[in-house]
Specification:
The protein is of the alpha/beta class. It is built from eleven helices and eight strands. It has a five-stranded parallel sheet with strand order 2-6-1-7-8, sandwiched between helices. A hairpin with a 2-residue loop joins strand 3 and strand 4. It binds 2'-deoxycytidine-5'-monophosphate (DC). 2'-deoxycytidine-5'-monophosphate binds next to helix 3, helix 5 and helix 10.
Length: 238
């Protein structure tokens, strides 16, 4: 009986030990409509991760700054406005939803006006700096809500936000294929123009960081992309 109890304790300890179940960070970067959101939502479900879409953070800030009539080119006004923004997070299912002044974003952040402006605001170092700690702090949100880790999608996650993430993926796809995907979602988007600005900005440009796993999804289905990523994650976690 004593031996059986010892075994039970050992098994329980192994199950709860941090080495056995480490907090994991999955970073997914890529251009507009490259499949980041769809794949990261599925991975979040499969591995019990908090899903964090940092593009929605930049979109929410852009919407707010446009609403306040603060142009991205007016640095003093931009700095003053950013200093006044209060960020919070609430869960929307498995996804982190950003609150500004206690309010979640509406559907307008996916509209054409934000599409046209978001890359310009995202290129301003002060805007990126304002979001840096908030993005890294999503690990606390994930831990507080009992997630096993987080999957964060964006443009600079594997390069700047979490360069030491356990898994770093970079998705790309032919622009024509990406435009087709957006059209199939019934959404208008300035994909090529946003990519051009996002890739050429000085601060944290969109780029595949050294050591990240580069996946070309042009001829792959969503399921195939997810299987590639999930296979690598599962193999590592075994
Ligand atoms: O992922 P998305 O297309 O919704 O992102 C909207 C814009 O936000 C994108 O054009 C560039 C910016 N962005 C960024 O600069 N860095 C991130 N980590 C995420 C998004």
């Amino acid at each position: 009986m004593a031996i059986q109890l010892d075994c039970l304790v050992a098994v329980l300890l192994a199950m709860t030990s941090p080495e056995k179940n480490p907090f994991i960070i999955v970073a997914i970067d890529g251009g507009a409509a490259s499949g980041k959101s769809s794949s990261s939502k599925i991975l979040a479900e499969r591995f019990n991760l908090l899903h964090v879409d940092t593009g929605s953070f930049y979109r929410h800030i852009t919407y707010e700054l446009l609403r306040l009539k603060v142009p991205y080119s007016d640095l003093p006004a931009l700095r003053a406005a950013l200093a006044r923004l209060e960020f919070g997070t609430r869960l929307n299912g498995r996804s982190a939803q950003m609150l500004i002044g206690g309010q979640p974003a509406g559907d307008e952040i996916r509209g054409q006006n934000v599409n046209e402006h978001v890359s310009h605001y995202a290129a301003v170092p002060e805007v990126r700096q304002a979001l840096l700690a908030y993005q890294r702090g999503q690990t606390d949100v994930a831990q507080q809500h009992g997630f096993r880790g987080l999957v964060m999608e964006g443009r600079d996650i594997g390069s700047v936000i979490f360069p030491n993430a356990e898994f770093r993926f970079f998705l790309h796809a032919d622009p024509a294929e990406r435009a087709k995907r957006r059209a199939a979602e019934g959404r208008q988007d300035s994909i090529t123009e946003r990519d051009r600005i996002d890739s050429s900005r000085k601060t944290s440009p969109l780029t595949c960081p050294a050591g990240a796993i580069d996946i070309d999804s042009t001829f792959l289905t969503l399921e195939q992309v997810v299987e590639k990523m999930a296979g690598l994650i599962a193999a590592e976690l075994k």
